Amino acid sequence: MPGLTAPSDYSQEPPRHSSLLINAKEPFNAEPPRAALVASYVTPSDFFYKRNHGPIPIVENINRYSVNVSGLVERPKQLFMKDIWMLPKYNVTATLQCAGNRRTAMSKTKTVKGVGWDVSAIGNAIWGGAKLSDVLELIGIPKLTSVTEFGGRHVEFVSIDKCKEENGGPYKASIPLSQATNPEADVLLAYEMNGEPLNRDHGYPLRVVVPGVIGARSVKWLEDINIIEEECQGFFMQKDYKMFPPSVNWDNIDWSTRRPQMDFPVQCVICSLEDVSTIKPGKVKISGYAASGGGRGIERVDVSVDGGKTWMEASRIQKSGVPYISEHASSDKWAWVLFEVTADILHSTEIIAKAILLQMSNLKRLKTFGTLEVF
Where in the numbering of this chain does the Moybdenum cofactor oxidoreductase dimerisation domain appear (predicted)? Predict the structure, then answer.
């Protein structure tokens, strides 16, 4: 692509923060220490997890860079950055999470393939850019459209990024057209992160941000946007990030029997302590993050310091000075909440945190466990 290239080797990688925990060097995949993750509601770019599939693309000429928008539409269009900058700009605070977050802990129960993430393949940022619904209007697709007159039902995002899983082809993923054309879904073509231009690791010069959905759908380094009839047939849509019952293993898996994962599930993680921590008896601050996909708010976070026998409610925090209310207009619906509670720990015990969300009169929860040794 003019203006943007995908290197064939890793000799031109960008600099990264020295405190990142590296899970793979080539391609580079890393996460921050869990304590650093909850140091602030908005995750600094340096501490935002890095999930890559190949060498980081290089922008040679920003003025020549463009995205082709085509497919089952009446009027395809080539968009340059100046065209996108001219559209109304929106800032959306949204948490992105790799679908493989916490894979290391999962593998303690049953081996899971993929990058061995701890609990920090997640981050919360303020993304700035044009709404995808506005971009699609430029090619004749009205807002709140589910199918184009030519039969397009999905929007496919194709990266300049080449990866081995696609046999050297580009990384790609898709979302339903109904989501892409809904302004309330806040899907962005983002060119800023936390008030600054995207850095190379996070998709410079342009990426998709799909709030509430696993990070694999927020494609970086955009080259093409295609309106297609069926969902994307790429590797990461069809042969990864799907959910199967325990009876399925790598010998009998049938990928076609499951739909690709989209909204990420409710998550709750203690970050102020490691899985096994040794401390002195006394008051201990227990803090972490809780998040849910699909814009669903966190109704409550409970913490137990006796292995689940009794529970106490933790405070939930988003923006400083603004009380967090689940699914309220004052809260960031696409973002995580940080939680905190202080407890007296007098002896070795197991600490558990659970997040609860209220949806369609059903309580949904996910727990995390940690063992605390007191000396």
Answer: 260-356
Total domains in the chain come to: 2
- Backbone phi, then psi, for 138, in 5-degree steps? -65, -25
Write down the pTM of the prediction. 0.94
Structure tokens of 375?
């000396």
- Whether cis (ω within 30° of 0) applies to the bond prior to 205 is yes
* 246, part of any domain: no
The per-residue pLDDT for 112 is 82
Residue 344 to residue 248: CA distance in whole angstroms:
43
Find residue 277's DSSP bridge partners: 372
Same domain (yes/no): 234, 186: yes
Distance CA 231, CA 222 (A): 18
d(CA 213, CA 136) in angstroms, rounded, equals 20
- Cα 371 from Cα 347, distance rounded (Å): 11
| 227/287 same-domain check | no
Q: Token pair of 309, please?
A: 């026998």
Structure tokens at 310: 């009794």
For the segment 48-96, what is each residue's pLDDT rounded down to a tens digit?
A: 999 999 999 999 999 999 999 999 998 999 999 999 999 999 999 999 9
The whole domain housing 116 covers 4-239
CA distance 356 to 88: 36
Contacts of 10 (CB under 8 A, 6+ apart): 26, 27, 28, 55
